[in-house]
Amino acid sequence: MSYLVLARKYRSQSFSEIIAQEHVTRTLQNAILAGRVAHAILFCGPRGTGKTSIARILAKAMNCSEGPAPSPCNQCRSCKEITAGNGVDVMEIDGASNNSVDQVRELREGLGYMPAHSRYRIYIIDEVHMLSTAAFNALLKTLEEPPAHVLFFFATTEPHKIPLTILSRCQRHDLRRVSTPELTAHLALLCASESVSIGEEGLDMIAREADGSVRDALSLLDRVIAGLHGASAAREDVAAILGLAARSQSFHMAAALFQGDTAGVLSIIRDLHDSGVDLKKFHADLSTHIRNLLVAKVEPAKCREILDLPDSAIQSLLDQAAPLTTHYLSRLMDILMAEETGMRHASHPRLALETLMLRCLRIQPALSIDRLVERLDALRNDMLAGPENAPAFKNPPLLSPGPANQPLPAPGSEDKAASGIQESRSLPPDPAAPPTNTKAPADKGPTVMPHPAKESAAPAQKKTSPATDTGVPAEDHGPAPAEKPLPPAMDPAFMDMPEEAPWPDTLAKPPEPTPPPPSAKAVDPEAGWKLLVADIRKNTPSLGELFATKTTLKKVSDQSIHIEVQGSGFSVARLGNKKTRHMVESLTEKYFGKALKLEVSTLESDSSESLRNQSEKEHLRNDATTHALVQDALEIFKGRVADVTFL
């Protein structure tokens, strides 16, 4: 006799042997005891969950010589014939290959014959959704009023394809997918019966690959047993035989993605490809792993109930998800799911997976808002604790001022914060030092900024020059004595300069003289406008390009400059906002001789374009207010969105 595969050898022969479908088997047993078995029953559910097996067991229970009984004896003639598949009173029909209306008519013609030796004449139609519409219509009247000795048991994986007129005439029972722990326990019992030792992790891998199907799990187990060299197999052996990637590979790939390790990601893909792993299946496994991380991040307390994973794997998920944000994991999940169809039909899976992983690497894990708030709170507490708890900063070493750069003291100063500097200024001068009001030769050092650069030198002069207190005439704006300055970090004169002041080494370089602004009457409006736009383009290229291509100078008056904007709503909003107006108005004095107010008008477009721009704005406003980070911020700070500004 040829080898009998495990799926046939261990096929359930009684209701008690059906796995994880107690809600269906209990209902049928109660109906048998109460004598309320329907004449047409439809079994729905995923593949390999026991639909046809339950239909056969129910047929045995109804035709058993000791029945109808909730548990068939499996010893009588009828039970043995049904088990062997050659019963004359129980006909099993494949709906996929017998789906024409003529075959259904032949079935109807045989309904009038009484059973040969059993109680009922039973028809089991598998994959009933494959029947044609005409075949279903031919079956309607029979299903509504069948003969008393006829029962119909249907099985299908796609009940939505069955006409409602058929569904309304059947009693429906939905079978569920078998969970991974239940499948693993069932496989362990079968391994013990076959005298085969497979580790729990290996059985768990088989159960996950079966995806809730008992028949698929038995077929995979048959394959693993056939590929064993001995009587035992570890997780690595199961993965190698089935061509699967171990769960640890998904962990390693996810860790490399989170760390931004491009070389590590490509190396893992290369190893998987070289070991013969199905990269399309690995993409699905990685998507499942990211989904599990998202569940562990959102519901850390209930993830053990949601995920069918061992405790060790759950703890690993919690540890890996701890430093990540929900938004980051959601973005990864979106990318992986968006490319699912492309991966499934890719002719070069390795290239497709590498490209997909490189896209995922472009997403950097962001700092969670909770941790950001914690850091801000810590910084605020440090600031409130006082300056004595602030970190000390080292000041650069101060050297004693030399005779050539000894500044004059400034008596009477009310700035108490500069007392240390005033003490250093009051040191007695070196007798060999020349007087400070004596002009030094021009070749001994760079000169101080000349008179035309009043505005840039004003802050430094106000802070450091003691001329008004030492008798030096204030109106003497000639060049100061040429002295060799100390480096900025060594000269105490620069220690109390404000942050806005230019770096001291630039004070020694005379700026290029700027010509006086032209008068308003001498400026050509078109030429001045072109110069102004060129200045904006130099500092802000994108804004300058909009001014150059989307605006037209209409009028220049004594008080304002009027431009007309044409284009999309984005251009109008960008050129007419407050920041842009301030920039243009600050430049009008330079190019038009006086400050002018900017007036912006819009070149009216047709109503359809206006409505389209308004719709685009509403769409952008909705996207901004519903963004995940915005929602997180609103939830944390208990705030609301006051306004949305278009740039």
From TrEMBL:
Top-level EC class as recorded in UniProt: transferase
Keyword set includes Ion transport: no
One GO molecular-function entry: DNA binding
Domain of life of the organism encoding this protein: Bacteria
Biased composition regions of type Pro residues, renumbered to the chain: 398-410, 510-519
Catalytic activity: DNA(n) + a 2'-deoxyribonucleoside 5'-triphosphate = DNA(n+1) + diphosphate
CDD domains reported in the protein's UniProt record: AAA (cd00009)
Domain named AAA+ ATPase: residues: 37-179
Family matches, as SUPFAM superfamilies: P-loop containing nucleoside triphosphate hydrolases, post-AAA+ oligomerization domain-like
Biased composition (Low complexity): 435-444
Record-level GO BP terms: DNA-templated DNA replication
GO CC terms: DNA polymerase III complex
One family name in Pfam for this protein: DNA_pol3_delta2
This enzyme's EC code(s): 2.7.7.7
Keyword flag Zinc: yes
Record-stated family: Belongs to the DnaX/STICHEL family.
Functional note: DNA polymerase III is a complex, multichain enzyme responsible for most of the replicative synthesis in bacteria. This DNA polymerase also exhibits 3' to 5' exonuclease activity.
Assembly and interaction partners: DNA polymerase III contains a core (composed of alpha, epsilon and theta chains) that associates with a tau subunit. This core dimerizes to form the POLIII' complex. PolIII' associates with the gamma complex (composed of gamma, delta, delta', psi and chi chains) and with the beta chain to form the complete DNA polymerase III complex.
Xref: NCBIfam families: dnaX_nterm, PRK05563.1
Protein name: DNA polymerase III subunit gamma/tau
Organism, as annotated: Desulfobotulus alkaliphilus
